[in-house]
Amino acid sequence: MKKNKLLFLSSLVFSLLPSTTSCGSYDLVVFNWGEYMDMDRLRQFEKERGVKVNYLTFDSNENLLAKLENTYFDICFPSDYAVEELVSKDMIQPLDYSKIPNFNLETSLVPSLKSALDTLKKPTLGKEGFDMLKYAIPYTWGEVGILYDRTKISDEEIEKDGWEALRNPINQDGSKRKVVMYDSARDIFSVALIANGKDIVDISSDDINIAKDWLSEQKKRIGNNLAYKTEEILDDMPNLKYDICFTYIGDAIYSMTSVEDDSGEIDYDRFGFYIPPMKDGGKTRTNIYVDAISLAKNSTHTELAYDFINYMQEHDVAYDNSLYNGYTSPINTIYEEITSENSEYEDGEGSFYPIASTYQIKANENDKFYRYDQKLKTSLEEAWIEVKIS
């Protein structure tokens, strides 16, 4: 779920490319989140293969899905529920893993992620199981939690209040708490549902109303110090404009490695990141997500596309991409190496050691993926509009 502060710039750059993306002078068409890939590695692929890649960016799964309806592509990087929607629309094809020898279905992934994806295959109330690995290889993954400024909110308070810290109007120093929330119906309702012990997969109309009341009460308590934003949060949190927000782990890592102390050094201790335990009797601890690589059903460059996907699984390539985008790698060896204790940070190893406890996600059985559900999506969007105008 990449939020990109440079999206406008990258979109502008790519808008200067030819409007048609089918064939033309390009050998491969790739859609990815902005600032999500080390472009040196992309250029290396082009040089070694003697090909040209049309690399296009998007800022949301909804934007991606709309583009793919009318645009030729070979490879895309959708999130989990978007993979499911693309399958339902017959727009991506099952992967042939014999053509991706750099990835092993049984051993390559971080164990807790593999377990979560295996659980996703099992039917739940009102939902058939979904085998995401049949159609997509994980590129990054993460979970949703609370990012907070430790000079305003203590670790002890966060652990005591949990999600309710997002509705507490006063900081420990007596100042008014400044809160920012993602302006996304699906994301913001997930917090409200989880805070009330509800599921984020099997959601009733009563659950939506309870979540809506929780969000409306937040507006009343925080007042004008509450903001709803999207990618601007990536600038606002490191610049200390807000005290607390709910966010994706990858965006939390960006803030943790961007905020500076008075001497201009990275202040790794300024922010904390916390995922509250599941409420007693609750059904979900947090939302787990994966951004993945999928192959278009109508790709006319299938062999080159498989070569690209396999290239992305090479250890050094995957390592550099994880260093570049700051999101947690799903590849177990990289997951361990990038947070290893290496004070010299040689070749990037240990780069995220100072925030290893955040980078090294430990998913559990109560962490759930969103599922594709068009009717629910509409209901949440309508409820979110009601909250904002209330």
Question: What is this structure, in a nutshell?
Answer:
Strands 1, 2, 3, 4, 5, 6, 7, 8, 9 and 10 form a 10-stranded mixed sheet that branches.
Second CATH tier, the architecture of the largest domain: 3-Layer(aba) Sandwich
Q: What is the CA–CA distance across the termini?
A: 28 Å
Most strands sheet = 10 strands, mixed
Measured as a percent range, the helix fraction is 25-40%
Per the CATH scheme, the topology name of the largest domain is: D-Maltodextrin-Binding Protein, domain 2
Q: From the helix content, strand content and strand pairing, which structural class follows?
A: alpha/beta
Fourth-level CATH superfamily of the largest domain = Periplasmic binding protein-like II
The rough form would be described as globular
Please count the beta strands (DSSP E, at least 2 residues each).
10
CATH class membership of the largest domain:
Alpha Beta
Q: What is the element string, with H for helices and E for strands?
A: HEHEHEHHEHEHHEHEHEEHHHHEH
Low-confidence stretches: 4-22, 343-351
| Total discrete domains | 2
**Strand-residue fraction?**
5-15%
Q: What do the pLDDT scores average to? A: 89
Per DSSP, the total helix count is 15
Cα Rg: 21 Å
